[in-house]
């Protein structure tokens, strides 16, 4: 079989369906914004930050998430948000990504001066500007290559503390005499309602609703009301599930939250991660769940480098469960998760999938095309079908050009 060259992976049209805006700043931009806004960093230079915060490997998920305290701290005004969204789109498009779906939690960024609509408008402005610039390129404007597009996914959090942001501090004060989980439910419902309202009133490209944060002890069903609202108002749904918990968490995301996609799904095939005593045959449970996911074409957003960084037991990507996902013919896409925190790109993720997971030519093409088909792209169904056809034609022309057919 002809090898798949990195040059082909860089040129191929790609989608990034799981990328956190606040985890994907340019390191130089983080340093500049921190200096301008008086945010103290552990180091004033890029090399120092790579040594202390944004590492190649992390001890655990907690250490991985440490960097978000700094990135969120510099994203609490509209110019910073617009700039970071613009740069994320530019960097993504420059490596062959044709569609990007940045996600973030606006409630983390609310200040006295900036409420949720202003936050989302700023992100949309940056993404829209980058998209317009790339679509003006001669190869795209002339119809020779598929265009660029984006959609915004808003995130609710499974849990939070007062120090997460001004919004959460205020909400927990208001809900002081309620159970803690009631506050988590209220925040996610408010987020879903705001996302729909701003999408409809402002015409922003808000295409999806996500649930992120600590899985264990903070089940998905606590957020069923928010997802029910999103579902009734035609807001697409994805859920972080199976990242640090098992198949039960993924099952909840599907059955209680109507999710269209699953973020990570890392522990889908691990019977040891099943905790419920009611599941007497974990392996059978996993087989049934995997069949259901395959049959319904519920897409798994796989983030290889991120999983490697937060799971010390994963010493080789050859052991990553994506191999079982591919063998079961699940709809699978490769994503960055966080371009800065994971020090990666979509091209790098695909390169690692080919070299270390063993992705073959057919699997590679399927995963890349799934990224467009299972996206929440803000087009009509017929427009999206036409766009995906153009992507496939462009991809196949590159296959012939690089001689890998």
What would your notes on this structure say?
With 405 residues, the chain is α/β, with parallel strands linked by helices. It has one domain (6-402): Alpha-Beta Barrel (TIM Barrel), CATH 3.20.20. The chain is 50% helix and 12% strand. It contains 18 helices and 9 strands. It has helices at residues 6-11, 27-37, 46-52, 61-65, 68-73, 78-94, 116-135, 138-141, 166-174, 180-202, 224-232, 247-255, 282-296, 304-310, 322-327, 346-357, 361-373, 381-402, and strands at residues 14-20, 97-104, 149-150, 152-157, 206-212, 236-241, 261-264, 299-302, 332-334. Strands 1, 2, 3, 4, 5, 6, 7, 8 and 9 form a 9-stranded parallel beta sheet that branches. Helix 12 links the parallel strand 6 (236-241) and strand 7 (261-264). The longest helix has 23 residues, at 180-202. The protein is globular. The mean pLDDT is 95.
């Amino acid at each position: 079989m002809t090898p798949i060259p990195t040059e082909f992976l860089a040129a191929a049209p790609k989608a990034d369906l799981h990328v956190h805006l606040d985890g994907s700043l340019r390191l130089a931009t983080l340093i500049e914004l921190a200096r301008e806004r008086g945010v103290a960093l552990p180091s004033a230079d890029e090399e120092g930050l790579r040594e202390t915060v944004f590492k190649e490997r992390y001890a655990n998920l907690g250490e991985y998430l440490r960097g978000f305290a700094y990135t969120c701290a510099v994203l609490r005004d509209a110019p910073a948000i617009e700039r970071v969204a613009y740069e994320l789109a530019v960097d993504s498009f420059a490596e062959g990504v044709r569609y990007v779906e940045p996600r973030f939690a606006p409630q983390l960024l609310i200040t006295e001066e900036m409420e949720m609509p202003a936050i989302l408008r700023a992100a949309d402005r940056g993404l829209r500007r980058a998209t317009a610039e790339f679509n003006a390129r001669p190869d795209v404007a002339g119809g020779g290559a598929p265009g660029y597009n984006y959609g915004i996914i808003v995130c609710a959090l499974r849990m939070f503390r007062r120090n997460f942001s001004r919004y959460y501090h205020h909400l927990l004060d208001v809900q002081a005499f309620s159970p803690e989980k009631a506050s988590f439910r209220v925040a996610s419902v408010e987020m879903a309602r705001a996302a729909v309202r701003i999408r409809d009133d402002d015409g922003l490209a808000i295409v999806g609703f996500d649930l992120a944060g600590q899985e264990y002890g903070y089940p998905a069903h606590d957020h069923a009301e928010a997802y029910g609202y999103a579902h009734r108002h035609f807001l697409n749904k994805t859920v972080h599930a199976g990242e640090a918990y098992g198949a039960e968490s993924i099952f909840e995301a599907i059955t209680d939250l109507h999710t269209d996609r699953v973020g990570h799904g890392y522990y889908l095939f691990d019977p040891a991660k099943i905790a419920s005593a009611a599941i007497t045959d974990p392996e059978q449970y996993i087989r049934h769940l995997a069949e259901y996911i395959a049959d319904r074409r519920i897409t798994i957003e796989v983030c290889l480098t991120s999983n490697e960084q937060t799971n010390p037991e994963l010493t080789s990507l050859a052991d990553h469960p994506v191999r079982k996902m591919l063998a079961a013919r699940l709809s699978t896409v490769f994503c960055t998760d966080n371009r800065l925190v994971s020090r990666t790109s979509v091209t790098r993720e695909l390169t690692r999938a080919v070299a270390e997971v063993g992705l073959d030519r057919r699997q590679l093409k399927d995963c890349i095309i799934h990224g467009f088909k299972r996206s929440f792209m803000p087009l009509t169904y017929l427009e999206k079908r036409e766009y995906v056809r153009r992507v496939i034609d462009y991809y196949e022309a590159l296959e012939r050009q690089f001689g890998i057919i």
